[in-house]
Design brief:
The complex is a heterodimer of chains A (207) and B (375). Chain A is built from seven helices and seven strands, in the order αβαβαββαβααβαβ. Chain A is of the alpha/beta class and 207 residues long. In chain A, strands 3-2-1-4-5-7-6 form a seven-stranded mixed beta sheet, with helices on both faces. In chain B, the strands form three sheets. In chain B, strands 1-4-8-5-9-10-11-12 form an eight-stranded mixed beta sheet, with helices on both faces. A two-stranded antiparallel sheet of chain B has the order 2-3. In chain B, strands 6-7 form a two-stranded parallel ribbon. Chain B starts with 12 loop residues before the first strand and ends with a helix.
């Protein structure tokens, strides 16, 4: 792939991810986007669904990117929790492909469902077929959704669809919807833990 | 020659207001004048005006130089000018010396029309709220109905906050840097030490020192030394001065041994040479009293309920005078009210004074935010 092809591919995938998330966010809602990067998702949600909200980000350049994108952003470390954010003050809280970069997984999931009615979580599935093959061949996987070498990855938690669902059950988190996609972006229904590269969840508190 | 991105030679102006001003304390000023400067051009819609509020020792001389003194560069010149983050090609920028100041606005050194003598200690205590009310008169005078932005660092940031509360429909953006929603006990304690230094100077004469032809320089010097310690970070002081000796050896005397002592004495002396003691006392009191949540049982979110502006809030990692946690208090009160807010926590070594420096990332943030403001 040339650099340009790679870029176009990345943009297509990003639009695809955004569309999946946007589909779960009713128009006009208030959202909080954790690890929002340069605010592109929030901007997309605002432009396509009139969604208002804030991003939370720790990286300095990303915060600058948010400002350039006209996105409201709060620079803070989510690892320390979301103290300051009031209970149930958002309709949706989103963490898009950032949960695997944080240590305090349980705390973050708990905090998300404290500040919002529903959470949207997406993450790369470590048990995806090609990842298993890589491990079987003796290497840490590098793929479309896990695009980093082991020595240079921001990811600190490696987990699978099955692992995540077990944790949700233990934490009393209700899985309201799940979507899994392969690397080509096709939705998979058969054995998602094997065939899904990227997983999306809509989560709530068990009644 | 001034560099191409300087506003160049500027001329201070002054405006008199004859209508009495009732102050928060209940006292009243029969009239007053404000010294101010402007940079750039007010557009036809009068929609591009930005007010720059100064902190403790600042003035209306924000940018540019005076023709007769090439050293007299404005205190925030690195921010304001053509092509600079606060771009005077886009914005009409106004700097003002606050009421009670000592740079040309009516203050303790002015003549009290009722006695024909300098006000001295008779000048009433003015607050951040009073400053903003006075600034609103200046806005009226300049035919500025609504500020595109009000911007300030430290005590200046408090004025930007106050604008959003007192005149919610006259400010579109509040830029609040290295500030706090109120002083902590520790902040007030430092201010009290500074005040006691001045009040206990034998040359203070209860505030009427001008009548005696003296200045309480010793008190002012100490006040500034204490203040200056709080403006710098421990790490920056260590880096800049460490335990460097002035004379290369311990002198076993109370003269300057360490370079940091020399630096503080220099800063104190310089300040005492030009700043008015009564103004300093009053400014520190204005800081102490500022607390928008005071009338709301300490609930800052309730205080912000009437604000309509969008906010840019920034703090600096090594600022222990107004630490990042103080800025977060503001941010979460804004969030409660669903107001637009951008909050940046900037890594900078220079402590509270960071807001005056041209740190690259800091200025990039401000530039990006200000560029997005429509005029």
């Amino acid at each position: 792939m040339t650099e340009q092809e790679r870029r176009i591919r990345a943009e297509q995938r990003e639009r695809f991810d955004f569309a999946v998330i946007a589909n779960w966010i009713p128009p006009g809602e208030r959202v909080l986007d954790l690890g929002c990067g340069d605010g592109r998702l929030l901007r997309y949600l605002n432009e396509t669904r009139d969604v208002s909200g804030y991003g939370v980000e720790i990286d300095h350049d990303s915060v600058l990117g948010c400002i350039r994108n006209g996105v409201d952003v709060i620079q803070m470390d989510i690892e320390c929790g979301l103290s300051g954010f009031e209970d149930q003050s958002f309709n949706h809280v989103i963490i898009s492909q950032a949960l695997q970069t944080m240590h305090a997984t349980e705390r973050i999931l708990g905090e998300m469902l404290r500040v919002a009615e529903e959470a949207v979580v997406s993450f790369p599935n470590f048990a995806y077929r090609t990842n298993r093959v890589a491990i079987a061949e003796g290497h840490m996987p590098v793929s479309e959704d896990l695009p980093y070498d082991w020595f240079d990855t921001p990811n600190v938690r490696f987990f699978t669809i099955v692992d995540f669902e077990q944790l949700c059950a233990r934490l009393g988190i209700e899985i309201r919807e799940r979507l899994a996609f392969d690397e080509a972006g096709h939705e998979v229904s058969d054995d998602p833990n094997l065939n899904g590269s990227l997983a999306f969840y809509r989560l709530g508190r068990e009644a | 020659m001034s560099p191409s991105n300087s506003v160049g030679v500027v001329v201070p102006r002054s405006v008199d207001f004859d209508e009495p001003l009732t102050l928060k304390s209940g006292a009243s000023l029969p009239g007053f004048s404000l010294a101010f400067e402007t940079y750039g051009t007010l557009n036809a819609e009068h929609s591009n005006a930005v007010l720059v509020c100064h902190a403790l020792s600042g003035s209306h001389h924000v940018a540019g130089v005076y023709a007769d003194d090439p050293e007299s560069v404005g205190w925030w010149d690195n921010l304001v000018g053509p092509g600079k983050p606060l771009d005077t090609r886009k914005f009409f920028v106004v700097g003002v010396n606050n009421l009670g100041g000592c740079y040309g606005s009516t203050g303790p050194l002015s003549i009290n029309p009722q006695t024909g003598k300098r006000y001295g200690a008779d000048f009433p205590l003015v607050t951040v709220e009073d400053w903003v009310a006075a600034q609103a008169r200046l806005a009226d005078h300049l035919e500025i109905r609504t500020w595109a932005a009000v911007i300030g660092g430290s005590l200046g940031g408090m004025q930007a906050i106050e604008w959003s509360l007192q005149y919610p429909d006259r400010i579109r953006h509040a830029v609040v840097i290295a500030s706090a929603p109120k002083l902590s006990a520790q902040n007030i304690a430092f201010n009290e030490v500074a005040r006691q230094a001045i009040l206990s100077d034998p040359d203070f004469h209860g505030g009427y020192y001008a009548d005696y032809g003296v200045v309480p320089t010793r008190g002012l010097r100490l006040a500034r030394m204490v203040g200056h310690i709080t403006y710098l970070s421990d790490s920056q002081m260590a880096e800049k001065f460490g335990r460097q000796l002035r004379h290369g050896e311990h002198k076993f005397s109370y003269d300057v041994d360490f370079e940091i002592e020399s630096y503080l004495r220099y800063q104190g002396n310089k300040f005492a040479g030009f700043f008015d003691a009564n103004t300093y006392l009053m400014m520190t009191k204005a800081l102490d009293y500022f607390d928008p949540a005071y009338g709301y049982d300490g609930n800052l979110a309730a205080a912000f309920a009437r604000a309509r502006a969008s906010f840019f809030v920034a703090s600096f990692s090594t600022d222990w005078r107004f630490a990042p946690s103080r800025s977060r208090e503001i941010v979460f009160a804004l969030l409660h009210n669903r107001l637009h807010v951008v909050y940046a926590e900037i890594d900078c070594d220079a402590g509270h004074d960071s807001f005056l420096l041209d740190d690259q990332h800091y200025h990039a943030l401000l530039r990006a935010y200000l560029e997005n403001i429509s005029v």
